[in-house]
Amino acid sequence: MRLPNWVGDVCKSLPTLHALREAGFRAHLVLRHSLADLVAGFGWPVVTVGGGIRGPARAVRKIDCDRALLLTTSFGTAAAARLGGIRAVGFRGDYRSWLLHRAVEYPTGEHEVASLWLLGRTAQQTFAPDSVWPESVPERMELPLTGEHHAMAKEALAARDVDEPFTVLCPMAVGRRDGHSKVWPHWSAASHRLADLGRRLVVCPGPGEEDACAAAVPEATLLPGVGLGAYAAICARAEQVLANDSGPLFLAAAVGAPVIGIYGAAVRSEVRPLGADFIGSDEGWPAVDDVLSRLPT
Question: What distance in Å separates the CA atoms of residue 120 and residue 89, rounded to the nearest whole number?
Fold first, then answer.
């Protein structure tokens, strides 16, 4: 299975991975090196690849299988599967249909979790039609964590003397949504207010984000260098998680953390994380008081 290139999109793939495992499939998970730790809890072999076509093609050619499910939409991932000698099921688009063993029309109006689920069901019907597929799309995403993930989370918290309860803040976000920034402009004020209320605040900056996180949430304790699995385990231990529309929002939702996503434009129902609460509207960013009022006392 070729997984997507972003944390949030990998989380949207989780119900499909669980369904395929329940249907009896054994899989190699192919994805970027930076995301490998995220899916370690499935216990399947992980193959990491870079960009381009020839490198990934060589990597998949070494895998002992001849069938693939592409949970990506790019031409390059379809070409890599074809050059690697693998029959692939995937979505149409990006001029790649001729490279696929079976091309599926991307469903419109569906949540992206449901779209990937339907693609997985097509792969099941194509490659193992006698296997059993679950009747309905789950209502949440579930990320399995390993004992090592939990141990690393505990170690990172202990290293900075962070005791429970604590609140995780996720002030970073990459890209834009419908032309709007995905970064809530009130993180600094919110961190001061939360600290005044006696909350212990934690932020886990990604590579190169340390200074930006320190400036955005000055009252928070930084836990730099935390891998994705440990980050998810930290969120799972948190009393509350506040996040932009970002990968960490999906990560927290996928481990069942009490999480609120903060949006500054219309919340598109087809892309928001399952299992997460959210605040925001097409009228703009919510005020600090509005966000804090959603937190348990």
Answer: 9
